[in-house]
Amino acid sequence: MSQHLQSAARHAAELIEQADALIIAAGAGMGVDSGLPDFRGKEGFWNAYPALREAGIDFQRAASPATFRADAALAWGFYGHRLNLYRQVQPHPGFAWLRTWGERMLHGWTVFTSNVDGQFQKAGFAPEQVHECHGSIHHLQCLGPCSEAIWSAQDFVPQVDEGRCRLLNAAPSCPHCGGLARPNILMFGDGAWVADRSRAQEQRQAHWLQSVRRPVVIEIGAGTAVPSVRWFSQSIIHEFGGRLVRINPSEFKVPTPHDIGLPVGALPGLSAIAAELGSEWCFPSDLA
User: Fold this and answer.
1) What residue ranges do the domains of the chain occupy?
2) For residues 115 and 163, is the Cβ–Cβ distance under 8 A?
3) Number of C-alpha atoms within 13 angstroms, CB side, residue 245?
4) How is 16-46 classified by DSSP, letter by letter?
5) Whole-structure pTM over 0.85, yes or no?
6) CA–CA gap between residue 255 and residue 260 (Å, rounded)
7) Which CATH class is domain 3-287?
């Protein structure tokens, strides 16, 4: 570990030790160390989905309700592959460190994430304390939509031709109208996203935030291209007097001298902080 990273991690550990609540703000970079693809830029997306490169389809076009209407097998080939991947991938150890740190604090923790992968819940975070601002791939809604209904995707097991990025089995249907179902995710150009589940999460989080006095935000893998997570982090600092630990390999600058940025990825950053916090902040498997 470099001297600069160690110094930054020590500062971050001090902010965590002084806090009465942990606020985890996570973008796409949080999942990269678990083996999830990085969609930053056309090349990153097309490296993960070469069939879409050949067709000239970028992320914004693939992640669009219009694609479900025009070519449902292609749209569900993309989302079906992601659903299978997210079900298989195991969260990296950084998730467990975060949960343990939050459980040590007076008011506990909350999660704000733009990720739709459900990795926090898979890592043991209580679902009622997670706010998924862009929805979840593990839930479905009507493409129309014919109603505000949202239901679990657990019964849908996509069979995907990965080479062609196409769904081979039947796509899920709406139980109310029989039409095509889609993931309950905020897509590009999406005026039909049913946001009720996310709004309920937001309301629970807002209520919880009223109880905290000295929060620390650990923001991980959230850039400026899709700034939802950054906006949330900034709002905590301004409204609740919180401090910010920003973990990002390229966009790590912080707004005040009291905050700290770690110029690394999620797992290296959290590992460095864990080393500075010491054994009393670890979870049992770290002590073996």
Assistant:
1) 3-287
2) no
3) 30
4) HHH-SEEEEEE-GGGGGGGTPPP--HHHHHH
5) yes
6) 9
7) alpha beta
